[in-house]
Amino acid sequence: MRLLVLGGTQFLGRHVVDAAQSRGHEVATFTRGLSGPPPAGVRDLRGDRDDPTALATALDGWRPEGVVDTSCQTRAAADQAASTLADVGGYAFVSSLNAYTGWPEGPVSSDDDPTWTTDDDGYGPIKAHGERRLTAAVRGPVLLARAGLIVGPHDPVDRLGWWLRRLAAGGRVVVPDRLDQPMALVDARDLAPWLVRGVEEGWSGGVNATGPAGMTTLGGLLATCLDVVGSDAELVPVPDEELLAAGVEEWAQLPFWTRASTAATLWDVSTDRARALGLASRPVRESVADTWAWLRARGAPPRPAAGPASGSPRPGLPAELEQRLLAAR
User: Are the beta carbons of 195 and 94 closer than 8 angstroms?
Assistant: First the structure.
């Protein structure tokens, strides 16, 4: 199959390219070229997804039979893909659980829960717009892979990476006091071949593409991180009210933490269809260990992902804020 990967040189996209090549497909990537070239043997197409003519110009007569879209961050990007790629035989669109009107508050009880229909430029409404636009335009089946927390090597978002580096540094470490909070995640190396299979086999409709609810806990994840990095750091639990009073930003400054009212249902997401379609969930330890090995090999934190999120502050608790919280304990 001639497979076009929108994205393809960062994180999930590069794992999709690897999976597609290993399955014998002729692969092209369409990127802005900011993350370097794709692997050898991959057609390297360049352009801006927000430019309505860029994709057609880059294709220059090359006609993909299938598409895996890992990089849609704007309405314009979705509209460009819908108008240019309407004739493909299958399309896997990496959406998000944020497309649901009821998430992150949760729970998400099925793949048919209501999605956003508003015109604002929030992340969830943009993803929901892409889902509607592509489903209406593309001739072949369109898989709407509503991803949750994606982890693994080459992750530029760096939430798991921050925890690994902070715990490796040792000492007293501020953590939320609800370490029994359930969590779910999906390794990019499991999601990527599943997306390629979705195009090959013609899957369509919404699928909650994340790990099963309760596959680990926050405490279990942090304990695994401690073991992998070989740290004797002391975890110092701090209640929600103290974190919030100190101005700690949920999810961003203390990755994976949200206040109790959200966390109680945040990770309660039905993944029955994903499991039936064979979405794998490798052991959490493997994801953590491989991410740590990648971080150590590169010797520096990853660059932020290109796109709207690239201007956001890096994840992690500022040292001075952590010290103020620790001083009270």
Answer: yes
